[in-house]
Amino acid sequence: MPARIVMNLQNLLSLAKPATPQHRGIVLLSARELDKMRTVGKLAAQLLNHLEPFVQPGVSTQELNDEADRWMKSHGAISATLGYAPPNHPPYPGSVCTSINEVVCHGIPSPKQILKDGDIINIDVTPILDGYHGDTSRMFLVGNPSETARKLVEVTKEAMMRGIAEVKPGARVGDIGAAIQECAEANGFSVVRDMVGHGVGRVFHTEPQIPHFGKRGTGVKLRPGMVFTIEPMLNEGTYELKFLSDRWTVITKDKKLSAQFEHTIAVTEDGYEILTLP
Fold first, then answer.
1. Does domain 4-274 fall into CATH 3.90.230.10?
2. What letter would DSSP give residue 161?
3. Hey, which of 101, 124, 234, 265 has its CA 20 to 30 A from 250?
């Protein structure tokens, strides 16, 4: 969080193709660094658990943001998103991202945005603790969403887990994307092409890029010590997006529903470790 634009974080409106597979720029974390990532990852997951009972009809997204900010500070952490301003973006004004219904990602909390029965919402958090980033997001159901909304949420989580299951030394980034795309499309949903997962550690967004669609056997080869997010966004309708004038909020072009889940993953000697579990 925020999800990284394919190829070009410097221009939110640039929808380029994925980078040529390479290892340049990828940082392999040491055992000490992985311990720090486990600690902050667990903290991020606990924050989402803490917020869950607050996700109710009548609650504003600003209230969720403020509670998240309070909780992070009480645990010695700060928000990576608050004031985050990559080139060509205004500073992000929230401590979390709150993306409701047709909002794909980067929804900005607001006192005027009130949760209502039937909504689905993604809350995306990235606390920084001891210099390391814990990046994770989760969907929440508000009241009683439609069967379509429930299915979209369930399939998105399943697709993420299928992508994670592909992670091991020697596998390729394309294996992750292919598994996610196969799951999504088999259930009648589309996969967002223009936003990708990313390397994370001391730096918020770094290599490698992790597209959530693709072809098996292609892309960067995975090695122990790599740490990155897998954060698929699945849409009810088209995968095409629209970027709002605030230069942060991304919505589905057809205004149909979108859902996202995200974990931070470490490549181990024999597979993977999910770092953002509570």
1. yes
2. H
3. 265
